[in-house]
């Protein structure tokens, strides 16, 4: 008799827009802004095309922008489980800085796609490393698979963190091949026997 194959589905949603997003500033874990008016309105529009009822659990970054987005998308139907491992990447002293300004100061620490590169820690000594982020993402994903091997999990979090979640599954923690998804964009993986397949990346609902 063949063994039954069980599959975990995990969907990530990036939070809605904040004023810092709009201004092109770096927004890491030390910045705790709520959604701006445009961000709230867009999240509400996108949530009209999202059904939270299918999920067995909803995990969320404790930061306000993620919690507010999760509340909009789950429509009061689900308990939100905060988890510090879902906090956005900690850019240290770069948090809140204009990305264009950091590119002028440290052009080698911004990649060709305009994202903060792995070596930014050469200039932000108190910032988190990609290896540290990959480890906490991996710890979280391993726990989800143990708890919900045949379940559906929703995670509402942040742009760089979601890039690393994808990278942990597919490229051993190298995020350079993954763009930051749009505000309120979705990413979905299916996982069988700890082997992950990307179903979609940066799905837009509105």
Give unreliable regions as ranges: none
H/I helix tally: 6
CATH class: Alpha Beta
| SS elements, strand count | 6
| Gap from first CA to last CA | 45 Å
Structural class: alpha/beta
The fold-level CATH name is: Rossmann fold
* Major β-sheet annotation: 6 strands, mixed
CA gyration radius, whole angstroms: 17 Å
How many domains, in number, for the residues?
1
CATH superfamily: Phosphoglycerate mutase-like
What is the second-level CATH architecture?
A: 3-Layer(aba) Sandwich
Mean pLDDT: 95
Main β-sheet, spatial strand arrangement? 3-2-4-1-5-6
Element-by-element helix/strand order? EHHEHEHHEHEE
Protein name: Phosphoglycerate mutase
Pfam families: His_Phos_1
Descriptive overview:
By secondary structure, the chain is of the alpha/beta class. The protein has one domain (8-91, 129-203): 3-Layer(aba) Sandwich (Rossmann fold). Helices cover 31% and strands 17% of the residues. A six-stranded mixed β-sheet has the order 3-2-4-1-5-6. α2 (37-47) packs parallel to α3 and α5 packs across α6. The longest helix is centred in the last third of the chain and has 18 residues, at 130-147. The relative contact order is 0.22. This is Phosphoglycerate mutase. It holds the Pfam family His_Phos_1. InterPro entries: His_Pase_superF_clade-1, His_PPase_superfam, PGM_Phosphatase.
